[in-house]
UniProtKB/TrEMBL annotation:
<dbReference type="InterPro" id="IPR000445">
    <property type="entry name" value="HhH_motif"/>
</dbReference>
<comment type="similarity">
    <text>Belongs to the Nth/MutY family.</text>
</comment>
<dbReference type="InterPro" id="IPR003651">
    <property type="entry name" value="Endonuclease3_FeS-loop_motif"/>
</dbReference>
<dbReference type="Pfam" id="PF00633">
    <property type="entry name" value="HHH"/>
</dbReference>
<dbReference type="GO" id="GO:0006284">
    <property type="term" value="P:base-excision repair"/>
</dbReference>
<keyword id="KW-0411">Iron-sulfur</keyword>
<keyword id="KW-0408">Iron</keyword>
<keyword id="KW-0378">Hydrolase</keyword>
<feature type="domain" description="HhH-GPD">
    <location>
        <begin position="41"/>
        <end position="192"/>
    </location>
</feature>
<comment type="function">
    <text>Adenine glycosylase active on G-A mispairs. MutY also corrects error-prone DNA synthesis past GO lesions which are due to the oxidatively damaged form of guanine: 7,8-dihydro-8-oxoguanine (8-oxo-dGTP).</text>
</comment>
<dbReference type="InterPro" id="IPR004035">
    <property type="entry name" value="Endouclease-III_FeS-bd_BS"/>
</dbReference>
<dbReference type="InterPro" id="IPR005760">
    <property type="entry name" value="A/G_AdeGlyc_MutY"/>
</dbReference>
<keyword id="KW-0326">Glycosidase</keyword>
<dbReference type="GO" id="GO:0000701">
    <property type="term" value="F:purine-specific mismatch base pair DNA N-glycosylase activity"/>
</dbReference>
<dbReference type="InterPro" id="IPR044298">
    <property type="entry name" value="MIG/MutY"/>
</dbReference>
<dbReference type="InterPro" id="IPR015797">
    <property type="entry name" value="NUDIX_hydrolase-like_dom_sf"/>
</dbReference>
<keyword id="KW-0234">DNA repair</keyword>
């Protein structure tokens, strides 16, 4: 890939980054473990949300060893509210591998680091360039947006194969002396200036070398065709309590969405449902309910990346519970506060408090 302004582009970007960079806790360290943690937390989550989690997490797990052998329930509790919990489990598995296979030293080359659980091409490049000063690409959605505009790349960024083109573009442009600053500069530029809508081109450090700015079509880039379908599922949620004021909770399976997190029992409502959801609840969980105390405790939607839960929550009194399923148990409010619970369940808990 040829690009005549490459030197000027990289110089302006790195200088701008060093002047304007946001003061973030993970930018005050060159410890690859801490940078790895930050990059995993930042996937799909806003910087402002991540900061308190990052600080708390590293206080609890300051070293690779401390995270590698932490109990999973405690780890999920630390991650509670950040979502995408498989990130936490993969991070722990990857960290354990580093401790056991690499003598607690995060690998400093793409080949080895990419083999760690949960470390994709972006995270690998971010850790290698920021912590180890290696000229390695780290291409995420922000970077694709900036480069699609600056270099006028019109490939569909929804197609997995397109990433390669952007990785080659970064390989061509990256500052070999300051690769970490270059990559972070691209990320910050995408987050602060070259935003999805209304890019602030007049403030942009690479405006003079941006083809989309010259052509006046920045708002039409990047090209992204594929729309991810978001499936909707309706649930009746049963917030059931016993005579001691303890609530019935269920642990989710140890694989898949929100694995190992705790929730109030949820009954899916579909066209095929033959039983009333309250009957299904009683049958599935071996409980008898006296009455609906409140059949409209809370109604809300929770949107994941690929599906939406439409939740209708009912408060019910449980008068009899025999032979509860293995993953189901009554807990007091104090005990519930110690359990890892996903955000939609925390919303319900909030109403109960
Ligand atoms: Fe993005 Fe505008 Fe800068 Fe080009 S000039 S990189 S479109 S902000």
């Amino acid at each position: 890939m040829e690009y005549q302004y490459k030197e000027l582009f990289r110089q302006n970007l790195v200088e701008w980054f060093n002047k304007e960079k946001r003061d973030l806790p993970w930018r005050r360290t060159s410890d690859p473990y801490k940078i790895w943690v930050s990059e995993v937390m930042l996937q799909q989550t806003r910087v402002d949300t991540v900061i308190p989690y990052y600080n708390r997490f590293l206080k609890k797990y300051p070293t690779l060893q401390s995270l590698a052998y932490a109990p999973q329930e405690e780890l999920l509790k630390m991650w509670e509210g950040l979502g995408y919990y498989s990130r936490a489990r993969n991070l722990q598995a990857g960290v354990k591998e580093v401790v056991e296979k690499y003598d607690a030293k995060v690998p400093d080359n793409r080949h080895d680091i990419s083999k760690l659980k949960g470390v994709g091409p972006y995270t690998a490049g971010a850790v290698l360039s920021i912590a180890y000063n290696k000229a390695e690409h780290a291409v995420d959605g922000n970077v694709m947006r900036v480069l699609s505009r600056a270099l006028h790349i019109k490939e569909d960024i929804a197609l997995p194969k397109t990433r390669k083109i952007f990785e080659q573009a970064v390989d061509m442009l990256i500052d070999p002396q300051r690769p970490g600053d270059f990559n972070q500069g691209l990320m910050d530029l995408g987050a602060m200036i070259c935003t999805p809508t209304s890019p602030k081109c007049l403030l942009c450090p690479v405006r003079d070398y941006c083809i989309a700015f010259q052509e006046g079509d920045a708002d039409q880039l990047p090209i992204k065709t594929k729309k991810i379908k978001n499936k909707k599922i309706k649930y009746d949620v049963y917030v059931g309590y016993d005579e001691n004021g303890r609530y019935l909770l269920e642990k989710r399976p140890d694989e898949g969405l929100l694995a190992n997190m705790w929730q109030f029992p949820m009954i899916e409502i579909s066209k095929e449902s033959v039983l009333k959801s309250s009957d299904e609840f009683q049958l599935n969980y071996n409980v008898d309910i006296m009455d609906f105390v409140n059949d409209n405790l809370l109604t809300f939607k929770h949107v994941f990346s690929h599906l939406t839960w439409e939740m209708n929550c009912n408060l019910v009194k449980i008068v009899k519970a025999t032979d509860l399923p293995e993953n189901v148990c009554f807990y007091s409010k104090e005990q519930i506060n110690q359990l890892p619970m996903p955000v939609p369940m925390l919303k319900i808990l909030n109403v109960l408090n």
